[in-house]
Amino acid sequence: MKVLVPVKRVIDYNVKVRVKADGSGVDLANVKMSMNPFDEIAVEEAIRLKEAGTAEEVIVVSIGVKQAQETLRTGLAMGADRAILVTATDDVHNDIEPLTVAKILAKVIEEEEPGLVICGKQAIDNDLNATGQMLAALTGWAQATNANSLEIDGDHATVAREVDGGLQTIKVKLPAIVTTDLRLNEPRYASLPNIMKAKKKPLEEKTPEDYGVDAAPRLEVVKTSEPPERAAGEMVGSVDELVTKLKDKGVV
Amino acid sequence: MAVLLLAEINDGTLSLDATSKAVTAAKDLGDVTLLAVGASAKAAAEEAAKIEGVAKVLVAEDDLYGHRLAEPVAALIVSLAGDYDHIAAPATTDAKNILPRVAALLDVMVLTDVTGVVDADTFERPIYAGNAVQTVKSKDAKKVLTIRTSTFDAAGEQSAAPVEDVAKADDPALSEWVKDKVAESDRPELTSAGIVVSGGRGVGSEENFAIVEKLADKLGAAVGASRAAVDSGFAPNDWQVGQTGKVVAPDLYIAVGISGAIQHLAGMKDSKVIVAINKDEEAPIFQVADYGLVGDLFDVVPELTEKL
Ligand SMILES: Cc1cc2nc3c(=O)[nH]c(=O)nc-3n(C[C@H](O)[C@H](O)[C@H](O)COP(=O)(O)OP(=O)(O)OC[C@H]3O[C@@H](n4cnc5c(N)ncnc54)[C@H](O)[C@@H]3O)c2cc1C
Ligand SMILES: Nc1ncnc2c1ncn2[C@@H]1O[C@H](COP(=O)(O)O)[C@@H](O)[C@H]1O
């Protein structure tokens, strides 16, 4: 079985985001970019399936600017076998919408015929949490989002999902789309020798046109603004003082 | 303009808070038809019919919908979609699972975690862990959106709107439910509680979490946790508050042994009053706290529990 892992290049989760003064977006020039953390978990899970003999090949795919090559190389250094880069824009500020991403991925799936796709549950830049579900719709496959654990047996996968009430375990027919939650695994770091090896692994370059997908966005960003700021608070010196303040506020 | 709004129903029980807050957001868009789905959904539908602003309730009651699996529920919504301009739901894990699938089946984009309705095509939603707010205008013929309930007030009551049955849709037969692991609790539900007490890595262990829980019980509060506390096994996953967990905005939020990473702040910074208890005076949580207390939580929290 082949496993396909879509990986997104996003602002590093440690970077403090700055909204541009003219309201046109968030400043992404010269900031540290990394693989979306949920996608690292997805790559890790795919590699573990390969190590367990369940998967034969792990393919990482990224859609966006050509710099997403670095993200793919990270996936290759972790242990993926090959990569596909779909260059859909040359502007780092242009976020490709999940519907477009899913349409391109659906075409990649037609060509590659993977038995399983593992996405992140959410990109930490747009916070949409949509691509995996959309891809499942377009392929007509089952979906198992927010995976906390994943087991493959034959033509089914059993997935425990992190949901509002706790954990829900479902069994889905393969091929299927799984999206990762934080507790699925702890992704490995790529070792230096593996980083060197990754440079020689195949990376195929494509465009949305190659797949016949119209990448025109459906949503127009009217403006991007700062969230409302909280008024400055105060430090209290003791539990008694805290209790008094909370009583005065009427919250306890 | 007409809105189809998926009611939040679990095992036959309506989540009145989430559904009612979503109705508040949706009623500006047009007449709201609620969709009640489940193996048992009638009673929940009757209850939901009394939410102010609901014009009609559709009930799809069938074993097929027992566990709100994404594929059958999405197929049902798509079968009804023709009559509506907007398809919406409260942004729960169930709806976040289902609505993007609906959107793609309709060939439209999805707008998740909407915090503001500007007009029928234009919506506000937080991005980058709430560090920016984006206003987006949809060019799609139909809009599919999930609504972040913490930013809307609950709707009032009305005399019951009509309730009608709808036919079930085809079963895609792609997935089946195996089991649920749900912790029974007498505490209020995290996303609708008036007070939330959350613990972080500083709490140190699952046993020590009892300190946090005692304070919560004294206040009649819900208990939350940071990702670090969940990852370390101190607390269950459904207690996680944050960018990729639950979003809460109670009247009072008490953060205990939590440093205040942006991913955590994303889930609680709209709380009305924030209290932070942390032994590190430099902890970033103090920057959003209304009242900060520097101290060892193992001293401070029991003392606070006693004195409240
Ligand atoms: C993709 C992604 C998604 C994430 N999503 C979330 C999310 O949804 N929610 C979330 O919370 N985090 C999330 N995080 C994690 C986040 O970045 C932080 O790592 C996490 O919030 C830290 O948890 P913490 O504050 O409990 O732990 P720490 O940062 O380790 O802080 C522990 C605090 O406890 C204090 N402390 C220790 N002992 C005591 C004591 N005895 N008395 C008083 N204070 C004490 C310390 O001074 C410290 O400030 C996410 C991260 C990533 C990468
Ligand atoms: N441009 C992209 N390229 C590759 N994968 C993506 C892209 N956008 C989203 N994904 C995948 O879809 C997941 C969810 O993203 P989103 O729906 O944008 O929150 C991510 O974790 C990735 O696995």
TrEMBL record, chain A:
<keyword id="KW-0813">Transport</keyword>
<dbReference type="InterPro" id="IPR014729">
    <property type="entry name" value="Rossmann-like_a/b/a_fold"/>
</dbReference>
<dbReference type="InterPro" id="IPR000049">
    <property type="entry name" value="ET-Flavoprotein_bsu_CS"/>
</dbReference>
<feature type="domain" description="Electron transfer flavoprotein alpha/beta-subunit N-terminal">
    <location>
        <begin position="23"/>
        <end position="215"/>
    </location>
</feature>
<protein>
    <recommendedName>
        <fullName>Electron transfer flavoprotein subunit beta</fullName>
    </recommendedName>
</protein>
<dbReference type="InterPro" id="IPR033948">
    <property type="entry name" value="ETF_beta_N"/>
</dbReference>
<dbReference type="InterPro" id="IPR012255">
    <property type="entry name" value="ETF_b"/>
</dbReference>
<comment type="similarity">
    <text>Belongs to the ETF beta-subunit/FixA family.</text>
</comment>
<keyword id="KW-0249">Electron transport</keyword>
<comment type="function">
    <text>The electron transfer flavoprotein serves as a specific electron acceptor for other dehydrogenases. It transfers the electrons to the main respiratory chain via ETF-ubiquinone oxidoreductase (ETF dehydrogenase).</text>
</comment>
<comment type="subunit">
    <text>Heterodimer of an alpha and a beta subunit.</text>
</comment>
<dbReference type="InterPro" id="IPR014730">
    <property type="entry name" value="ETF_a/b_N"/>
</dbReference>
<dbReference type="GO" id="GO:0009055">
    <property type="term" value="F:electron transfer activity"/>
</dbReference>
<dbReference type="Pfam" id="PF01012">
    <property type="entry name" value="ETF"/>
</dbReference>
<dbReference type="GO" id="GO:0046395">
    <property type="term" value="P:carboxylic acid catabolic process"/>
</dbReference>
UniProtKB/TrEMBL annotation, chain B:
<comment type="function">
    <text>The electron transfer flavoprotein serves as a specific electron acceptor for other dehydrogenases. It transfers the electrons to the main respiratory chain via ETF-ubiquinone oxidoreductase (ETF dehydrogenase).</text>
</comment>
<dbReference type="Pfam" id="PF01012">
    <property type="entry name" value="ETF"/>
</dbReference>
<keyword id="KW-0813">Transport</keyword>
<dbReference type="InterPro" id="IPR014730">
    <property type="entry name" value="ETF_a/b_N"/>
</dbReference>
<dbReference type="InterPro" id="IPR014731">
    <property type="entry name" value="ETF_asu_C"/>
</dbReference>
<dbReference type="InterPro" id="IPR033947">
    <property type="entry name" value="ETF_alpha_N"/>
</dbReference>
<feature type="domain" description="Electron transfer flavoprotein alpha/beta-subunit N-terminal">
    <location>
        <begin position="3"/>
        <end position="181"/>
    </location>
</feature>
<feature type="binding site">
    <location>
        <begin position="240"/>
        <end position="244"/>
    </location>
    <ligand>
        <name>FAD</name>
    </ligand>
</feature>
<feature type="binding site">
    <location>
        <position position="201"/>
    </location>
    <ligand>
        <name>FAD</name>
    </ligand>
</feature>
<feature type="binding site">
    <location>
        <begin position="257"/>
        <end position="264"/>
    </location>
    <ligand>
        <name>FAD</name>
    </ligand>
</feature>
<dbReference type="InterPro" id="IPR029035">
    <property type="entry name" value="DHS-like_NAD/FAD-binding_dom"/>
</dbReference>
<keyword id="KW-0249">Electron transport</keyword>
<keyword id="KW-0274">FAD</keyword>
<dbReference type="GO" id="GO:0033539">
    <property type="term" value="P:fatty acid beta-oxidation using acyl-CoA dehydrogenase"/>
</dbReference>
<feature type="binding site">
    <location>
        <begin position="226"/>
        <end position="227"/>
    </location>
    <ligand>
        <name>FAD</name>
    </ligand>
</feature>
<dbReference type="InterPro" id="IPR014729">
    <property type="entry name" value="Rossmann-like_a/b/a_fold"/>
</dbReference>
<feature type="binding site">
    <location>
        <position position="278"/>
    </location>
    <ligand>
        <name>FAD</name>
    </ligand>
</feature>
<keyword id="KW-0285">Flavoprotein</keyword>
<dbReference type="Pfam" id="PF00766">
    <property type="entry name" value="ETF_alpha"/>
</dbReference>
<dbReference type="InterPro" id="IPR001308">
    <property type="entry name" value="ETF_a/FixB"/>
</dbReference>
<dbReference type="GO" id="GO:0009055">
    <property type="term" value="F:electron transfer activity"/>
</dbReference>
<dbReference type="InterPro" id="IPR018206">
    <property type="entry name" value="ETF_asu_C_CS"/>
</dbReference>
